[in-house]
Amino acid sequence: MKELENQIFISYAEADRDIADNLRYHFKKYMVGAWTYNSDKTPGEDTWAEIVEKIERSKIVLWLCSSYSNNSKGQSRELSIVEECKLEVKPIRIPVLLRDTKLEDLPVQLQRLNYLRLSIDKINSVTLEIIKTHFPKMSERFRSDNWFYPNPSDWLEVVGLFDVMENCFELGDLLYFRRLSPMGLFECYSPQIEGLYWLPSNTVKLVNLTETEQEERESLVPFIYTISAMIDADHVGFQAIKKNYGCEDSIDGFPPARE
Questions:
Q1: Does residue 173 fall inside a structural domain?
Q2: Can you tell me the distance from the alpha carbon of 198 to that of 201, in angstroms, rounded to the nearest whole number?
Q3: Which of 34, 63, 69, 212 is 20 to 30 Å from 101 at the Cα level?
Q4: Closest CA to 25 of 176, 127, 143, 132
Q5: Using CA atoms, how far apart are residues 214 and 83, in angstroms rounded to an integer?
Q6: Apex CA 18: angle with CA 123 and CA 60, to 5°?
Q7: Which of 204, 206, 58 has the alpha carbon at shortest distance from 130?
Q8: Host domain of residue 64
Q9: Crossing angle for the helix pair 17-29 and 123-134, nearest 10 degrees?
């Protein structure tokens, strides 16, 4: 596999190295190279010469801010390197707040920048937000069309995540579309969670399956969640309404026309 060019430099305090490496993993999963000192340093190279090189060759520097950052000499020096960079186009600085840190906890020179807040259940969505904003070509397969209305029984691919979705899905998961909810959300059956889930249209896109693939996928959907079962349920409910209103002899639920 071809080695990815590192386009993101992640600056962090040593105590936050696991978070940094988690971000690094997610970026690389979406084919965007990210560099962290602990995972990517070259044995035998001059430490700061290599860090300067990686910062200057990066498009983005993510500066992870936590309660440990104030005492991190390494992070402070890395920020100074970015600030003093002589390149015509400097790396884009993106502050990332961890845990309970606030805007005022950031170094003064970063407080005027728009920041992201990162928590353990937002790793995927934050990663994807950065990729969609700064690496649009890399994120094309994770983009949804403008609002669209699938046909019942269509399969949809998850291409976006918001906070709570991360606990249930990964990008690329397929969902069985049932219907539009009264709130305008897509009601889908998910084989991953073995139940129904309601999600906005901009988090999914239509996926075209062959007839064989469609049959294989639908075998994962219990009958109770299929469109056929939904139609049957609606029909039973409709019959009950007709009976309650004395319309058993009517056509399509409407009373017979007066003569």
A1: yes
A2: 10
A3: 34
A4: 127
A5: 54
A6: 60
A7: 58
A8: 6-140
A9: 50
CA dist 118 and 95 (Å) reads: 10
- Diameter over CA atoms, the chain: 98
Same domain (yes/no): 77, 184: no
**CA distance linking residue 244 with residue 156, whole number of Å:** 38
Q: In terms of C-beta density within 10 A (0-12 exposed, 13-18 middle, 19 or more buried), how is residue 214 classed? A: middle
| Dihedral sign (CA 42, 45, 51, 57) | negative
CA 244 to chain centre: 47
User: Quick one: which H or E segment has residue 74?
Assistant: helix 73-83
Mean pLDDT confidence for 122-144? 78
Q: Provide the whole-model pTM.
A: 0.63
Task: Mark whether 28 and 127 lie in a shared domain.
Answer: yes
Two tokens, residue 142: 């994770």
Radius of gyration of the chain (CA): 26
Contact partners, residue 249, CB within 8 Å, separation at least 6: 256
For residue 248, pLDDT over 60 is answered with: no
- Indicate the range of 146-150, 158-162, 190-194, 242-246 predicted with least confidence: 242-246
- What is the spatial distance between Cα 80 and Cα 88, in angstroms, rounded to a whole number? 16
- CATH number at 45 reads 3.40.50.10140
Instruction: Determine whether 25 is exposed, middle or buried from the number of CB atoms within 10 Å of its CB (0-12, 13-18, 19+).
Output: middle
**List of residues 6+ apart from 191 with CB closer than 8 A:** 174, 176, 217, 220, 221
Instruction: With beta carbons less than 8 A apart as the criterion, state whether 180 and 222 touch.
Output: no
